[in-house]
Write a structure and sequence with these properties.
- The protein has helices at residues 11-15, 19-41, 44-61, 71-90, 121-140, 143-151, and strands at residues 94-97, 113-116.
- It is mainly alpha-helical and 152 residues long.
- It folds into two domains: 1-91, RNA polymerase sigma factor, region 2, helix turn helix motif (Rna Polymerase Sigma Factor, Chain: A, Orthogonal Bundle), CATH 1.10.1740.10; 93-152, no CATH class.
- A two-stranded antiparallel ribbon has the order 1-2.
- Helix 2 (19-41) packs antiparallel against helix 3 (44-61).
- It starts with 10 loop residues before the first helix and ends with a helix.
- 11% of the residues are buried.
């Protein structure tokens, strides 16, 4: 398998806000970053969200890139952090409930219960319906606008 040769990108042009140079950056690294996100998340929609957020953050913070690593390493780190934040958001939120059962001497014999508040069926249904509607609306956009919308 031949490895794709990545274009030589001008860090000065990127830092000065050159959109054409940034488009070249996006073209060069979209595939590898998407694959990284897919490996971490296992879901195409989530991987696309990570990809989009990675390039948004890179665009916002390119001026603070100090060059202590390669541009690719910096982008992969942003993507990995985005994926980890998404995993944390999706992790069930558990809460300890205390139903104290004390005997006459103050000994507590209460079982500790874990309550999962994250995944209420109504919330999941509304979220999946909203995502489906949004996906359908995005698909109806003309291709040029769809690409801009997805990358924004």
């Amino acid at each position: 398998m031949s490895e794709k040769v990545l274009p030589e990108l001008s860090l000065d042009a990127l830092k000065s806000g050159d959109r054409d140079e940034f488009a070249r950056l996006v073209d060069a690294y979209s595939g590898p970053i998407y694959r990284l996100a897919m490996k971490m998340l296992g879901d195409g929609q989530d991987a696309e969200d990570v990809l989009q957020n990675t390039f948004l953050n890179a665009f916002k913070h390119i001026r603070s890139f100090e060059g202590r690593s390669t541009l690719a390493t910096w982008l992969y780190r942003i993507a990995a952090n985005e994926a980890l934040m998404m995993i944390r958001k999706q992790r069930p939120e558990t809460t300890l409930t205390d139903t104290s059962l004390e005997d006459d001497e103050g000994e507590d014999y209460s079982p500790v219960q874990f309550v999962d508040w994250c995944c209420l069926p109504e919330d999941e249904l509304l979220s999946s319906e909203a995502r489906s509607r949004l996906d359908r609306a995005i698909q109806r956009l003309p291709e040029r606008l769809r690409i801009v919308f997805i990358l924004r």
